[in-house]
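Hey,
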Amino acid sequence: MEDARHTSDDSTSPKPSNEIPNGGLRAWLQVVGSFLLFLNTWGVINSFGVFQAYYKDDLLRHVSNSDISWIGSVQACLLLIVGVATGPLFDIGYFYALLVTGSFLVVFGMFMTSLCTEYWQVMLAQGITIGLGSGCLFIPSVAIVSTYFTTKKSFATGIAAAGSSLGGIIYPIVFARLQPRIGFGWATRVIAFLMLGMMLICIAVMRVRALPPQKRRLLELRAFREVPFTMFNLGEFFGFMGLYIPFFYIASYATSQAGMSKALAFYMLPIMNAGSVFGRIIPNFLADKTGPLNMLLPCAVVSALLAYCWIDIHTTAGIIVFCLLYGFFSGTFVSLPPTTVVSLSPSLNVVGTRMGMSFSFAGVGLLVGTPVAGAILQAHGWLGTQLFCACCVTVAALAVLAARVSKAHGLMAKA
């Protein structure tokens, strides 16, 4: 994400910050567009739990949970890792090219998923193709909002990020309702058509206001001399390693451990994402006043406590409450990191580079977390998987605490 408060018509004289709209029709249209991009990138990833359950019970019943979860993990990892490369492309003016390319890939990948019958085909279409398309869209979707807002930046970003939770509500319900009636292929194609319509809206309304004053590098190794930034990245790694385990496995857990019918269990993921909608807007609104790191820390702590509580939840009512609460508090790990990186950066000129580095840590955590959880589930049962989730989120909370304490004590790199 890049902040445009110092963007100018020439490379030497900065533009006054009051020229950034910080509101207005065009600015909020970018939020709408970013909302739809989140809905069709992170929202698709947040929906993978419903595909995980279907694949295990039907299409890929001969494949283990761990191997199936690699599809969603690769998709999520590519979303974040590809962003490291697409960030500089956004900086030099290729936003529209990234938008069109990413839109084509996510829609094409979903259409191809509808035709899949083998594991490798699903990995190629849903994992790699949609993942690459999402990677083209994610960084630009965050970066463009920041160029239109100053004091409302966290709030606007939170509204945009809520699209990912809405996608995690809409798409699982669409799939669960349509798949028994019209089959896997057409249920998936309906989702693809919905994605196509929304991506066309994004292409129609999204426009770049200003480019960053300096082109950024892919890496800034000096940043790791700053304790707050390093500890935050550690928190990102462990947080994303553990946080998405319930999103992938809650439907399977509900049927096997709480005795839910498959029809009802399918709705646990939308319920979790419904809680996440508010968890991405309300904390972000407050973060503009408290600071993003101060808001992220308590939400991470509560997420860890809820992950431990998951161990002893075996009733329908308990799982529904868990889904709502866990969705709310875990939602901050997607919506607040961009503005947190801004707060931990000494200069706006390095924000884009550092954001790409931070997302790389998160991407690796996402890549390995759910497959490892699936392997633990197969070898040791649900208790091992739940403990793995809870311990990862606990380490993430401790790392965020260390980042907050070290920032308060000024443990930054010296110029």
